[in-house]
Amino acid sequence: MEKNRRHFIKNMGASVAAIAVGTAANGNNQTDKKILHSSVRVSANDKVRIGLIGAGIIGHFDTDAALKVPGVELVAVCDLYTGRIDAAKEKYGNQLFTTRDYRELLNRKDIDAVLICTPDHWHQRMAVDALEAGKHVYCEKPMVQKIEQGYAIINAQKKSGKVFQVGSQRASSVAILEAQKLVKAGTIGELSFIQAFCDRTDSRGAWQYSIPRDASPETIDFDRFLGDAPKVPFDATRFFRWRNYKDYGTGAAGDLIVHLLTGIHVITGSLGPNKIFSLGDLKMWKDGRDAYDVVNALMNYPETPQHKAFQVSTRVNLTDGEGKGGFGIKLVGTEGVIDIGWNEFTYRTLKRKSAPGYGGYDSYESFSAKGKEEFKKWYTSKYGEDFGGYEIGKEMAFAPPKGYDDRLDHLTVFFNAVRTGSTIVEDASFGLRAAAPSIACNLSAALDKPIKWDPVAMKLL
Ligand SMILES: NC(=O)c1ccc[n+]([C@@H]2O[C@H](COP(=O)([O-])OP(=O)(O)OC[C@H]3O[C@@H](n4cnc5c(N)ncnc54)[C@H](O)[C@@H]3O)[C@@H](O)[C@H]2O)c1
What we know:
The structure is a single chain. By secondary structure, this protein is of the alpha/beta class. It has two domains: 2-34 and 171-353 and 391-404 and 428-460, Dihydrodipicolinate Reductase, domain 2 (2-Layer Sandwich), CATH 3.30.360; 38-170, NAD(P)-binding Rossmann-like Domain (Rossmann fold). It is built from 13 helices and 16 strands. The chain has a ten-stranded mixed beta sheet. The chain has a six-stranded parallel beta sheet with strand order 3-2-1-4-5-6, with helices on both faces. Strand 2 (72-78), helix 3 and strand 3 (97-99) form a beta-alpha-beta unit. Helix 7 (174-184) packs across helix 10 (251-268). The chain starts with a helix and ends with a strand. The structure holds nicotinamide-adenine-dinucleotide.
């Protein structure tokens, strides 16, 4: 086995490493920058002016990444909390146009594209309004809070002809794209199942985000935050920790399984599962939230022209006592396995021998001495010295180049499409096909039954 492994590493340059980006298992730097979207050069004179709607945690990450794309300029910021407007000005400059009303931002002629980084219950309305106002839209995941909200975005995008991309950066991650090539090439045989998980241990991982000391009805436009959600009195916890409430978020499943399914759909080319069964519990973070902190789900991916049938088991555990945390997608095939973290993975193949072998945990051991002798004779005459089993084939570790940022790649894909009309993988249909089964986990857990979904027609059955 060790000999085979060394053999692979020795020969890796001629096989997998030839398509790999980053540092391969043998320590050689195998950077092939062609695959990195962010290495595509555009003219910095070709300006794209953006507006940010929702200057919270991810609004900053997305804007910072967007501003690294040559020629992108931030013109305006919309947010409902004064402290975040102030923070945006501190970081991006006093020249920014700021408002609490996103429609004022959409009315501006000097804005080409918007980043929608608001809570989930606002995504659909803002995305449709922005497309109708003629803006290109980068909308954070999950694309929608409720499954039925997806169709309006798909239609608005078609009607507007503008670029629309959902913000799960997994779709552009170099690790996901490399894994896609391996699966397509049949490297791990036929896909049997996928295990995908997101585990978190600490309170911020469980969405108990810091609440600023000046949070008040004066500094926060709480009624506007509520939007179409049920009216409740001012509550800073709901505003800053909205994910924990079904009225605004999509829970552990909608928020995090959506990233996992995005990766799985890109790798396999699948349109999604047709059956989702899920369990949900609120185990530990009993802070007034009504969202689960432990979700386990099973999904059936039926055979399609793109792939044979496979199963997905997935979980989000915000109560992880192992203390490791983490995020992973493990693709288990009949001839190998790919184990993906965030932007890195390991992969291993095996080869089964054609002879069945005998002995060990086998009925052979229970035969009489005479029976064993007869069997051995027969086996040798049929299979010779081939004692069956399997051999480990290739083993490899993939890592992206140092400092690699999948969010930057994802935003680069978006701005390239804005400039050149190039294709978007994570478009509105893709976004709904990843969001709907994730949100369906909540439905299945609440209704205590499997949810049937038509991934082609994008309809609940
Ligand atoms: N792609 C990723 O890796 C990733 C990571 C985290 C969050 N997200 C997504 O990004 C979105 C935002 O998450 P977050 O953690 O940044 O939340 P956040 O609470 O930190 O920020 C949301 C901001 O939106 C503002 N807002 C709310 N309603 C608004 C309205 N009607 N008009 C204008 N502004 C409004 C709030 O004032 C707040 O500052 C969510 O959909 C989340 O799922 C994506």
